[in-house]
Amino acid sequence: MSANQETSSTPFTTISQEQFGDVWQIPKGIWGRLVTVQNSVIGLRFIAVAFLFFALAGIMALLMRLQLANPESTLIDPNTYNELFTMHGSTMMYLFVIPLLEGIATLVLPQILGSRELPFPRLTAFAFWTFLFGGIIFYSGFFFEYIVGMDALAQEGWFAYPPLSGIVFSPGRGMDFWLLGLNVAEIAAIAGAFEIILAILLCRAPGMTLNRIPIFAWAMLVTAFMMLFAFTPLVVGSLLLEIDRKIGTHFYNPAGGGDPLLWQHIFWIFGHPDVYIQFIPPAGILSTIIPVFSRRRLVGYPLVVLAIVSTGFLSFGLWVHHMFATGLPEISLSFFSVVSMAIAIPTGIQIFSWIATMWRGKPQLKPPMLFAMGFFLVFVLGGITGIMLAAVPVNQQVHDTYFVVAHLHYVLFGGMIFPVLAGIYYWAPKFMGNGRMLNSRLGSLNFWLVFIGFNVAFFPMHVAGLQGMPRRFYTYQAGSGLGILNLISTIGAFIIAAGFAVFFFNIIYSIFRPQVTEANPWGADTLEWGTPSPAPQYGFRKLPIVRSRHPLWDQDELFEVSGQTKQVVEVLEQRPYRYRAQLTTGVFDGEPKEIFRVAGPSIYPLMLGFAMTAFSFFLIFDLYALAALAVVGSIASLVGWHYRPNTPEEQRTETEDRIEALTGLPVLMAGSRRVSRGGMLLALLTLSVAFVTLIFTYLYIRLNFDDFPPAGMEITDVTLPILGLIVLWVSGLFLYLAAKAVERDSFPRLRGFFGAGVLVAAIALGLQIRFYLSLPFDATTNAYGSAFIMIAVFMLVLQAASLLINVISLFWVLWRGNQYRASNHKSVSEMAIFALWAAGATSLGSFVLFVLPYIL
Amino acid sequence: MTPSNIPTFSYFRLWFGFIGSAITWVIHFFLIWFISEMGCLSGLGDQTLLGINSVVALILLMTIPLLLITVASGMLSYGIWRQIQDIERQSAPDQGIVYAALERQRFMAIFGSLAAILFGVIIMLQTVPLFTVPVCGA
User: Fold this and answer.
1) What is the predicted ipTM?
2) Which of A509, A564, B86, B108 has its CB surrounded by the most CB atoms within 10 Å?
3) Closest Cα of chain A to B60: distance in Å?
4) Contact A293, A368 (CB under 8 A)
């Protein structure tokens, strides 16, 4: 039967692998490399660039160890040493660990979930470019410092405490490079988190219920949520520090009523969860690997999931243990101390689960398992010193000594590096291309060098710390008894470096002398091993149907099931193939919900990343006109990103109708409704966290004022903002009615309500801007003024963003009016949600600004 | 029991049981932190209520209902777990994919029961310092 003869009730004719795979191919040439959004390419790029930054940070660590190898060494001067430990710590924390984990997730998740692609591939590409450009800005400090001769490298540590990081004590541009460069990279992390959450919740294989989700995916899901809650306050806090420096606000300036401790709170609200953000995914890797190499199912799956989720929650309740020495009330310290100890419970659950799995299985000591074993010793030692540090008296005794340096490296290196290396050795045959195994002998050598080197380097630091050696000092006195300990540490550092040289050599060796292997060389249980090696870009042409937590161990074949799900899978195996089609499934039970078109290659993610980076770069040098131009470039990139050309490929055909008739699922060429709604909700969640951070800032600053608002800064007439607020709610109502008009398929109503909503929103914005411009103070008056204006600016930016999106969308609606189709305008409901949320946030902000000071 | 009459539990019951205790802990944690910081700064820590320090009294007053909510979340999950066990005892073992939803609900119930124990214990542990540490000492 030819394609023309097919009727709505007959199955589709079979198409060739080439035909099916055509739209999934990576575009050719340099242009193709720039526009590709394929998860397999972007994931590898994330990993490669993260390791490049790791190598740079490693070289800096070696330089520091050389300096400390002998007492009173003059190899490196104090300023350079400060720059080195700042860049080393910042690179490892912001430019290595998180991007590496996101890269692994980007690479592995679609296949481990039995999906074809991530739901927002352009967002993934944007995250990569933003991370890369943010890292380049950050490292361009070296160029401007050593070539141009500016003061362009930060020296304030990876935590950048004010007042040291303020303009008075750090007048150069080093902190600006640090703050703005890393902010760009943090935005990348948040974008990546969106993608991971939606992929796991909405794009799993049919039948993959909540209790069948692989542990690695659970770990990434919890981590991604943590990233939203942890990175967002850091972005806000960093911006406040930057405008303290640039504009002269007083958030962290005690002279103006601000408080340096506010930064410590905001920073560690990010900083301590970040430790678990770095630990949970590697723990997920271990929960994947250990059962495979023990030939035994993971013991206590529900307990391990509970451990991951509870670690995510508890990690937000122990940030103050970094501030035990700051003079906070003892009772507060004890609350944080309890949580700092209690978090060992879920960690212990996972460790006992892994031990029990190995105990009941037959462990095979191949390279991935070797690294897993290394993890046990190193991480447990780090955990024990962690419990010690959770005790307030011990913490105060060893605060800022090398004991803490040893602890954090045992936890981070042990909890992250070892499992990640295990994961790379494990997944390399599937994801390195052409099914290449990494060499096993070199892998063993790699392990032993890193393991021995690590312990030689970091174990003596416990002793040095207990003997009182302070961290972040460029040298120490001869005769202090610290020389031999430091020399041993330096030798260890070079052994670690040799271990990583073997690792990189192994990768190169395996590329040039590949040991090609079968599809599932480890006999693993999860879906990614169900595709051939090398895996095609789309992963599964015929989507698997999951009936077990260990599908490759328990299911004779992956597609055996009857009923509607089977029909969906069989239809999707053949159609649609003109575009990259993907399935969304239910959050709880993984039942098929929609077939949608996944976004294809585009230059706009790169352009947007570039424009945003340019904005930060110009701000560093106070080039505000160019920064404004970069904002325009960002908006233009966003418009281009979402523009859908009116080409034949974009048009719906009979094929889509037939797919719907055969599967009973909607075929959405303009993108998934569920993914869009999920994206919008996550955006609102992120913005809410940012707003709460600002309100927290405002309340914290309130503690420094006896009179609040300070004399002369009272607001007496709030008619305009209240009027503006009412009008804003009316505009939200109009947009809601516009969304309802789309549901009722009424174009005239859509046009009318949408137009009215946009017009009224503009009036609301105008009223509020007029009010805030007439205030008798500004952001530089004092900390109250700074906090007041920042909340106001946040509310106005939200409204302006909502208005801009709506104006562009209205233009689109009117322009394409003759091609109106309800399914293409469903996103109006997302705009209505955003507008209503902006109205809600403005209401809350108005309450905080105009009511709270008079009742608190 | 046939697939058609396998019960499903309401989303509210499942989700309250599944994640209710963790969210209750978050609320409790931030409230007691807020009360202790603000109480000590405002001088409330120097006053007494019913013979005990006002900050301690407020925190205890806050803790009791939240602990009860945690217990309720755990009991709800445990109840669902028991009901599912009863269903499984009565039903044929080989019902294939039809039981996927039931398995998922059992998983959520087990998770919720254990989470309530964990977070309940942590809430209780966090009240211990109230009786051992000087409330507003620094």
Assistant:
1) 0.92
2) B108
3) 13
4) yes
